[in-house]
Fold:
Amino acid sequence: MEVREAVPKYKRYTYDEYRTLDDDKLWEMIDGVPYAMAAPNRRHQEISVRLLYNLYDFLKGKPCKVYAAPFEVRLNADTYDDTIVLPDIAVICDESKLGEKGCVGAPDMVIEILSPSTAMHDKILKFTQYLRAGVREYWIVNPDSESVTVNILNNGEYEACTYGKNEVVPVYVLEGCLISLSEIFEV
Structure:
């Protein structure tokens, strides 16, 4: 999804205030600052659908569930409850984290697909939030370079490995799940 605009930064919102924002837009909120999100482009959607399909197919009959945007994730609901993200794809293996509106707590895996307007948002702001919340695996998918950077949580830090278009990527939180990037990035 593309980041469009933010409401005035001097105002920090709570989750309850976030819920009252304009319903005609999708919103994320990082540390109390809401950001309006725009619809992704066609290439972004094609990549998202292919990734979602691969994960969904692998997870049939397994306890983990995969969800696509817009899927609300309240990363710090147990403390400030001021960070709500709409990841492109989220995998949740702990059913107790699933609520009516989405996930309450850190998903096991998050995938963000970069757009020109979201690259810094996804690579810095959301990276920090996912790390802080304890997301075990965070993929940053770059359609332009046709690569995926996989960040694996290890001792409170992310260890990164980047894979190119012709490689097969193991999903570390889903033992046995392999994703062929040539299929994901096919034109």
Summary: The first strand starts at residue 2 and ends at 6.
